[in-house]
Amino acid sequence: MTGRTSQNPLSRDPHATGQRRHRTLLSLLTGTAFLAALFMAVNWFSASELGRAIDAHLTQLADPESWIR
Q1: Residue 15: its pLDDT value, please?
Q2: Could you tell me how far CA 25 lies from the centroid of its own chain?
Q3: How far is CA 62 from CA 1, 27, 69, in A?
Q4: Distance between CA atoms of residues 56 and 50, nearest Å
Q5: How far, in Å, CA of 69 to CA of 56, rounded?
Q6: pLDDT of amino acid 33
Q7: Domain residue limits, the chain
Q8: CA 31 to CA 18: how far, in whole Å?
Q9: What's the confidence (pLDDT) of residue 52?
Q10: Distances (CA, A) of 37 to 9, 24, 28, 51
Q11: Are 33 and 39 in contact (CB under 8 A)?
């Protein structure tokens, strides 16, 4: 496709620009909340038996020498 129809120009409508900013801000806040929840879960699980087992397995996977055995 060539010409003007293949391009998606930004709208000059200020209301549409505000909606894009709102969606972008909402996405950033959602991502930040997800990362915060993930960080808290990792800290909570690290003190449990499950956390220690996961840590042992990840440590073993991170060691290339363990792949050979």
Answers
A1: 64
A2: 15
A3: 47, 32, 14
A4: 10
A5: 16
A6: 94
A7: 39-69
A8: 20
A9: 82
A10: 37, 20, 14, 16
A11: no
- What values do phi and psi take at 62, rounded to 5? -75, -15
Six token digits for residue 55? 């840590």
What are φ and ψ of residue 2, in 5° steps? -130, 170
* 1 pLDDT more than 60: no
Environment class of 45 (CB within 10 Å of its CB; exposed 0-12, middle 13-18, buried 19+): middle
And the tokens for 59?
């440590």
CA distance 44 to 23: 31
pLDDT value at residue 9: 64
pLDDT digits (tens, 9 = 90+) for 23-65: 999 999 999 999 898 888 777 777 788 778 877 888 888 888 8
pTM for the full model?
0.47
